[in-house]
Design a protein that fits this description.
Chorismate synthase, AroC fold, 9 helices, 5-stranded antiparallel β-sheet, binds flavin mononucleotide, globular
């Protein structure tokens, strides 16, 4: 079986295959009457498509058809189903090598799990194409959060070994400005010079028929303290389950993450202090989460995205039908890097996870409603 539905308070179900007629999703748990902004949805989908030689040459219009749950631009409260047709499909590219297992992709594991019945064309259900409906749905969740003063954005912290040296600001207005710029960016770095160097590395990998990976970092200021449903619904458990569902994600950390392991407690702890009568912390090593619950400081998380598995360099593999070792020289259209395209997917999944947790804690009333817990006036400088 597969599990294509996630969420407790708010649920998202994903469907489709890369070369099937359409991909899409069903959302349940939206408050009746909330506005559905199709223009913003289109902007986000355009960001996911990526640009020029840095991304796949597959060109999809990503036109969203709302099949249910919206009337006169507003959610009805019934299941919202949206679909996106697959139009620029070239399944022939895969036919010559369809029995040759792509190293690093899901060709072998999908065959084993689904007993040979999974759709192999273009990676089928395991294609990065499935992230388009996630982004379409994410646009709705991002809008819901923004109405509550919760903004978030993701930047490429590193790519192909090149780092975006500029850090997220520790001051609210400056961080808000950084996030606003990233939320519009097609290649999201804080330093334009680092962005240009990363783009060059991706181009060089593409020219060599190879690929590169990267690290994505997300910041979410404005969350109220107290969000999260430990044990199994903690902020970290919820968001990591969602982000590890994104194809290509192989690592994740919150705050200092793996960096905690080499510190002493006296270096790792975030001291508490009072600011305008509210409890805040003087540093944010824990990335805004203690005990799986938000503490009112900005949520900070990172994912490691591996290099695209489909590369054009010749590789050793096995012919699954003939059961013999062979060489794989791939054809088809692939991203030389998926990390920059995945930034908007990460935004969408984080927004979904947070909305799910808000629905679990507060029911539907927080969506567009007046009642809202007080935000801590965090500031670390
Ligand atoms: C936006 C996006 C685009 C992707 N494009 C490709 C691609 O063109 N070729 C490819 O082999 N993998 C691509 N991937 C990654 C694969 O889907 C993924 O590596 C594969 O399903 C195996 O899963 P795993 O890496 O999580 O183990 C993409 C992922 C994302 C998020």
């Amino acid at each position: 079986m597969s599990r294509d539905t996630f969420g407790s308070g708010l649920t998202l179900s994903l469907f489709g295959e890369s070369h099937g007629p359409a991909i899409g999703c069903i959302i349940e748990g939206l408050r009746p009457g909330i506005a559905i902004d199709l223009d913003f949805m289109a902007v986000q989908l355009k960001r996911r498509r990526g640009a020029d030689a840095l991304s796949t040459p597959r060109r999809e219009a990503d036109e969203v058809r709302i099949l249910s749950g919206v009337y006169q631009g507003r959610a009805t409260g019934a299941a919202l189903c949206l679909a996106i047709e697959n139009k620029d499909v070239r399944s022939g590219d895969y036919q010559r090598t369809q029995d040759l297992l792509r190293p690093g992709h899901a060709d072998y594991t999908a065959r084993r799990k689904y007993m040979g019945f999974s759709d192999p064309r273009g990676g089928g259900h395991f294609s990065g194409r499935l992230t388009a409906p996630l982004v379409a749905a994410g646009s709705i969740f991002l809008r819901l959060l923004a109405e509550k003063g919760i903004t978030l954005a993701t930047r490429l912290l590193s790519c192909g070994g090149i780092a975006d040296e500029t850090a997220f600001s520790q001051e609210p207005a400056a961080l808000a400005a950084q996030l606003a710029a990233l939320a519009q960016a097609h290649f999201p770095t804080l330093s334009p010079e680092a962005g240009a160097a990363m783009a060059e590395t991706i181009r060089a990998a593409a020219t060599a028929g190879d690929s590169v990976g990267g690290i994505l970092e997300t910041a979410v200021p404005g969350l109220p303290a107290g969000l999260g449903e430990p044990f199994f619904g903690s902020v970290e458990s919820t968001l990591s389950a969602l982000l590890f569902s994104m194809p290509g994600v192989k690592g994740m950390e919150f705050g200092l993450g793996f960096g905690f392991a080499s510190l002493r407690g006296s270096q790792a702890n975030d001291p508490f202090r009072l600011q305008e009568g509210a409890i805040v912390t003087a540093s944010n090593h824990n990335g805004g989460v203690n005990g799986g619950i938000t503490n009112g400081m900005p949520l900070l998380l990172r994912t490691a995205v591996k290099p695209t598995p489909s590369i054009f360099v010749e590789q050793d593999t096995v012919d699954y039908s003939a059961m013999r070792e062979c060489k794989l020289s791939l054809q088809g259209r692939h991203d030389p890097c998926v990390a920059h395209r995945a930034a908007v997917v990460q935004d969408s999944l984080v927004a979904f996870g947070l909305c799910d947790l808000l629905n679990q804690a507060l029911g539907l009333t927080w969506q567009g409603g007046p009642d809202w817990p007080r935000e801590a006036p965090w500031n670390m400088v």
